[in-house]
Design goal:
The protein is an alpha+beta fold. The protein is built from 14 helices and 23 strands.
Length: 468
């Protein structure tokens, strides 16, 4: 056996998976087919729930200290959600994917973990004990498990012949990182009479301290094949159509065409192989949900793989990865498809679409609606199906929980000091503190038991295996 877990793909999902496995104390090899890390920004927003997950591992503050990453409240279908009505301890941040990847690479390197590049996967075979992967450079790696974090065109998923259900991309728009003149620093979404639309999202600053913006341009006649080169004139034409001479392109730093594909793997687990991130789900990048969902896939799966490698995982623990994360991915696809309709992504200017958007804009002025949409987009609305009352939600960050979770272990809050004897049986996997409200928190920060003394021991066994 070369390693406990092989991670295919060194993007945000794969990097977070490597960190989770490191914290869990199991060996991991991270490979990527690219010769070097991409310098493309791609995703640009980090949700509240993702920030909380990073904070649980002590990574949030070091990440945010590396640059100017402004706070944001996100948007739904181009309708901005006011920051003061979302009510999160950790408001969204605009952090380009390229900065996240650079941070993780530096952090993991300190711990001796570096991506092995120029590793293009060509074959995969698994048996009852291991998975053997073969690469174009002649390398063969044998591991206990494989995590596919190799993107929307996942080679692992292809080799598994896994069902990837949904809609292929039929239309494209341009997403670009630019410097502009005449644009404000607020998120905006603006249409012209012919249906051309431009969305602007602040991205922080370049090394010289100059503001950067994510520019998205779409509309009728602007959808071309994905591999068609993007020119500065194409972007200038979109800006002129929508803004006239008011907004000018100063510099184009990065651009790509994105499609409206909406697909999800039917199963996230295939024996000893697990799909995560874009390998498991792809959709329009609306509301910055793709990268965040992938990072949270890794947080959900990492400690469970660690438990399996260490030999204490309950029988169905690895299956709960699919059970919990597949519904989350499906919900993201649904809200993205709703957003694309309400924002008139195709630029139809259809009267029925415009009437629907107008009504939705009115509803979105209500604080209760803003909070609900904020919860939906920030990941704080996630609830996993679990036995017991008041379980399945992210634990509130009280009594220093985010610091307690940095060990990668479970945490039992026992304020009345009544569960010491039971907790001692799992003390190699669960830490007990005599403060707070009586809850049991998994290593990923989710509550799996709350309050009922008779249910604590079954919950410990369900999530942390047989007592020692």
């Amino acid at each position: 056996m070369n390693t406990d877990v092989l991670i295919v793909g060194a993007g945000p999902t794969g990097l977070m998976m490597a960190e989770e496995l490191r914290v869990a104390g199991v060996s991991a090899v991270l490979v990527d087919k690219l010769p070097q890390r991409s310098d493309l920004s791609r995703a640009g927003g980090v949700q509240s729930r993702t920030l909380a997950a990073l904070d649980q591992r002590g990574l949030m503050e070091p990440l945010l200290a590396r640059g100017d990453f402004p706070k944001s409240a996100g948007h739904f279908a181009g309708i901005q959600l006011p920051l003061d009505n979302v009510g999160e301890r950790l408001p969204w941040r605009s952090v380009p994917q390229v900065d996240i990847e650079a941070f993780f690479e530096d952090h993991l390197a300190v711990h001796g973990i570096r991506a092995r590049r120029n590793h293009e996967l060509v074959d995969l075979a698994q048996d009852g004990d291991s998975v053997t992967t073969t690469f174009a450079n002649g390398t063969t790696i044998r591991s206990r498990y494989v995590v596919a974090a190799d993107g929307g065109h996942s080679k692992v998923r292809s080799l598994l012949r896994a069902d990837f259900l949904g809609r292929p991309g039929t239309e494209t728009v341009i997403a670009a990182d630019v410097r502009l003149a005449g644009a404000g620093r607020e998120m905006s979404h603006t249409w012209s009479d012919d249906g051309t639309w431009v969305a602007l999202f602040p991205l922080g600053t370049d090394p010289q301290g100059r503001p950067l913006t994510r520019l998205v341009v779409g509309g009728p006649g602007r959808s071309v094949p994905r591999d068609t080169p993007i020119t500065e004139e194409e972007l200038r034409d979109g800006l002129r159509t929508v803004f006239g001479d008011r907004v000018q392109l100063l510099e184009l730093r990065y651009s790509r065409r994105i499609t409206n594909a909406a697909r999800q793997a039917a199963r996230y687990r295939h024996g000893r192989v697990f799909l995560a991130g874009d390998a498991a789900h792809v959709h329009l990048p609306l509301g910055a949900q793709g990268m965040n969902t992938g990072i949270q896939d890794a947080v959900n799966l990492g400690w469970k793989l660690g438990a399996a490698v260490h030999g204490w995982a309950p029988a169905r623990l690895l299956d709960t990865y699919h059970d919990e994360r597949h519904p989350v991915g499906a919900a993201v696809l649904r809200n993205v498809q709703a957003q694309s309709l309400i924002m008139d992504w195709l630029g139809t200017r259809d009267p029925d679409v415009l009437a629907t958007r107008s009504l939705f804009q009115d509803l979105a002025q209500l604080p209760a609606v803003q909070r609900r949409l904020g919860d939906l987009l920030s990941g704080t609305a996630i609830r996993y199906e679990m036995p017991g009352a008041d379980t399945g939600h992210a634990a509130p960050d009280v009594d220093g929980l985010h610091e307690l979770l940095r060990s990668g272990r479970g945490v039992l809050f026992d304020p009345a000091d009544q569960f010491g004897k039971i907790a001692d049986l799992w003390s190699d996997r669960v830490d007990r503190v005599t403060t707070g409200t009586p809850i049991l928190v998994r290593p990923d920060g989710y509550v799996c038991w709350a309050g009922d003394p008779d249910e604590l021991e079954p919950a410990l066994g369900r999530w942390f295996g047989e007592p020692r």
